[in-house]
Design a protein that fits this description.
The structure is a homodimer of 430-residue chains. Chain A is of the alpha/beta class and 430 residues long. Helix content of chain A is 37%, strand content 27%.
Chain lengths: 430, 430
């Protein structure tokens, strides 16, 4: 059988592993596919920086490589350009693509899907979300006969490492971030991770697949973890909760029955008994709730060159099999075209800690503010009876806008010295 | 677009849900597939027993139904015949099949796969193992570029319910089985579950997919849970372990480097810190270890009409998409053709409890028996110094045959009054 020619675009930690496995596991992969894969070339910017791959395969001319009778592309360059133009052109010429590029998909997915659709090429991207964990294929294929209602994920290893460490040691955010950097879990510029951009791109991809609706990175409400304090973590612990950065994709039913999609990323308190609470260190896990299937959880390594290469190669084998079988994988499914609900309308719950003048006298005033904003209180805890008393309030579910306004109004009360912690609560019934 | 005609064979709890969802979710499924699905008929033995499905679709003539221009079959009859003959004939005529029939696949899978292969039809069976949990598609597609080394699963809800309850209440096996029957978690004849037949069929399917090797039900070493006593559970608890019925599929490397496959089902002690230890009640979970992906876990509902229908419909949508796209799903992959290793050769670890005459004098004799069989001892715990002393031994890894022989020899020692518990230990380093 004629070999299928594979072009590798980019050669960082994932690309290097893909090149190695394509070489070392060539015979096994050929047996599984029914034809050998031939690594035709590796496009990089600076060939001298890649001594660990076959030197004769390196080229700086990605476009030229893609014009050399290529069947399949693995794209691990990252970023928008030149990946976007290279992949769109290749897809429109019928070349199938496997990519790990979450930002590209979250920003420009639809134009790539359309190019694939028109030519009959495949585009697979399992590695773009939750690394080695098989997640996108289950969502868009295994659950394709079901109705997904909610996807709640820990999809960023760096932030999960930091929050887990803060929970274990009681240390503050800044010193824990520094420690994560020293250990190799945070990059020199950690903004993509700690400010939630990485998780938001993944949430956009998950929401698009789960709800058959186009959801881009700009549709995702995003809050990072840099404001999470050791006081927040301690407050969570006292209530039997822990803090996780969650990517939440939810089907929301309005009062008149119409459905919309909410996609959001923020740190939230979840009960320690929740299955996501035990996911420590740099691991990823995603909890999926569907009408018929019920609750499912997927757990594994969300990053790293070797685990991510596993997801890339799985997609590559699938795309290669399709090339031989003559069919193609699932296309973009955006027929539901649900409205994306703004964060202000989205029902959430808040945990609020206040430093107050005197608890006995304050509660009535605070409760009046909640009532005025139609926010119902679930739990109140009062500590101390002195000038430095502490009041903790957990709300029932209410629109986020009403909760925000409530917090602002409370902060303006004379009897409230300070709002010491505001955090959303997830993973328990409202 | 012309409708794809679906024949439903069987109408028990799963079939009834499939029929309901095909009707209620028809428009949504059509949008996802690109063509509507038409439920062409439901073959049952006694139509009068199925008042909850459209009566005009019921027929007792399955063969006739399958001759009426059918595109796709959902088979939920169960058992070997008539499912085997009906499906083999339909597949050879190019009709794609979705089945939840684990016993049929574990007994006669290869002849069905061959029929599908020759005609170009699909056969999908996600629902056959672990119900609603997307597991087979991840193993044979997402991990198709990786090397799976081990699959360890809790794949039978009835036995997990019983063992979890025994662990929580301290009650014995017989009364807990009765309780499970009262609550609807065990059938009137529970043998298929408690004797491990159900789990063994699933292990055969998992091992076949994970190791690209034909593994049938007869290749799976099988032990059920009816011998598990409250004393075993208590002994596990004392060592920080719990007892689970595990289906284990393992790639074993012999001393000369050749690989074989071990597939086995038995109750075993696992550490309480293991991810599978927390899987309680009737839930299923499967832990997969692969070279590149590392450790993955999949968790969810393993049985029940509605969850299982989710898996069936996911396969049906996939098979329908393939019918439209012109390709087909992954074929049987048995190229590795690894040897199936007999249980006697398979390395395991034992936990052994003994009632002995006098610990101080006995240990030397017992240790000599272990040494003679070349079984290395990892932990010894002695309790009591009287005529009724107790000795607990946990071994290092050794061939199962040597462990069995050691237990037999120890049982024959004069100083050993009784071997009170023998159980394998899994989920920790050897």
């Amino acid at each position: 059988m004629k070999a299928l020619r594979v072009a590798l675009l980019g050669c960082g930690t994932v690309g290097t592993e893909v090149a190695r496995l394509l070489t070392e596991e060539g015979a096994e992969l050929a047996a599984r596919i029914g034809a050998p894969l031939e690594l035709a070339g590796i496009a990089v910017r600076r060939p001298a920086r890649h001594p660990e791959v076959p030197q004769d395969l390196l080229t700086t001319d990605a476009e030229g490589l893609l014009r050399s009778d290529i069947d399949l592309i693995v794209e691990v360059i990252g970023g928008i350009e030149p990946a976007r133009t290279l992949l769109r052109d290749a897809l429109s010429r019928g070349i199938s693509v496997v990519t790990a590029n979450k930002n590209l998909l979250a920003e420009c997915g639809p134009e790539l899907y359309e190019a694939a659709d028109e030519s009959g090429a495949d585009i697979y991207f399992e590695a773009a979300v939750a690394g080695a964990i098989p997640l996108l294929r289950p969502i868009r294929e295994s659950l394709s006969g079901d109705r997904i209602n909610r996807v709640t994920g820990i999809v960023n290893g760096t932030t999960n490492f930091i929050l887990s460490a803060m929970d274990e040691t009681g240390a503050g955010y800044t010193e824990t971030l520094e420690e994560a950097g020293r250990l190799g879990y945070a990059e020199a510029d950690p903004s993509s991770d700690v400010d939630g951009f990485d998780a938001a791109a993944k949430a956009a991809i998950l929401a698009s697949l789960a709800f058959h609706t186009r959801v881009g990175a700009h549709d995702v409400h995003r809050e990072g973890i840099s404001e999470v304090s050791s006081a927040d973590i301690a407050a969570a612990r006292e209530l039997g909760r822990t803090v996780k950065l969650l990517a939440i994709c939810e089907r929301v039913r309005g009062e008149s029955g119409e459905e919309s999609v909410s996609a959001r990323v923020y740190p939230a308190m979840i009960p320690r008994s929740h299955q996501l609470a035990g996911v420590g260190g740099a691991f990823n896990a995603v909890y999926v709730e569907a009408d018929a299937a019920g609750s499912l959880m997927f757990f594994g390594q969300g990053a790293g060159g070797v685990p991510t290469a596993s997801a890339v190669l799985g997609d590559l084998v699938t795309a290669a099999r399709n090339r031989i079988a003559g069919g193609f994988g699932p296309r973009e499914s955006a027929h539901a075209a649900l409205r994306v609900q703004p964060m202000g309308e989205t029902p959430t719950r808040y945990h609020i800690s206040l430093d107050v003048a005197d608890v006995a006298g304050v509660l009535e005033q605070v409760a009046a503010v909640f009532a005025k904003h139609e926010v119902s209180i679930a739990v109140v805890r009062q500590e101390g009876r002195t000038a430095d008393a502490n009041l903790v309030i957990v709300t029932h579910s209410a629109p986020d806008r009403a909760l925000r306004a409530t917090v602002d109004a409370i902060a303006g009360l004379d009897v409230v010295h300070a709002v010491t912690s505001v955090m959303r609560v997830e993973g328990e019934s409202t």
